[in-house]
Amino acid sequence: MTPPAGPAPGAAPGVGNPPPPVPAPPAAGLTSVRPPSPGELAWAELAKQLTPAASITRIDTVTARAVTTVTVIGLLLTGLGALGADQFAADGTAATSLAVAAALTAALAVACALVAQVLTISRHLNPADLLEVKAWYRRQFSVRAYATQAATVLLIVAALLAGATAATALLTAPTASSPGSGATATPTATRP
Predict the structure, then answer these.
(1) Helical H segments across 35-145, by residue range
(2) Is residue 189 part of a domain?
(3) Total structural domains in the chain?
(4) What is the pTM of this model?
(5) 41 in a domain, yes or no?
(6) Angle at 121 between CA 118 and CA 123, to 5 degrees
(7) Domain that holds residue 129
């Protein structure tokens, strides 16, 4: 005897007969499947670096750089060594005002960088609860990323102010031959 070719007439579906295969749905928006290009693979590798932990690491790197780079402001204020700190007061109010503005802006940049570096301890964070983990990272970004951006912008402004201070002091410094420069003429002896 040969088995019947199809289900027995009147048999209930699934009883003694496997269900017909269901075709796989087509991928959304794709008409054909091809291997990813080298460019797409490169973008995928870059996307792997955009994890929350990697972003926090980048924030830490930038804020540490802001704190250590603030020494450049002092170097710029002295005109790369051409000026002494006492020359700003002697050169007039423009250089002094710019020097004070540069120093205050640099101090604000360091303060913002230090705010971004504040250690956060989460005693009650449940790492198994992904909603809590996401909320923790979002809080970190909202505080630390904005403080880091502010520190970087303030550091740039401080560098510009310091450069302007040095340029102003150098350009307005009295020369040895100008009146009021403190240079005195020494009489020369004449022979009879």
Answers:
(1) 38-48, 52-69, 71-77, 87-91, 93-116, 130-140
(2) no
(3) 1
(4) 0.59
(5) no
(6) 165
(7) 51-171
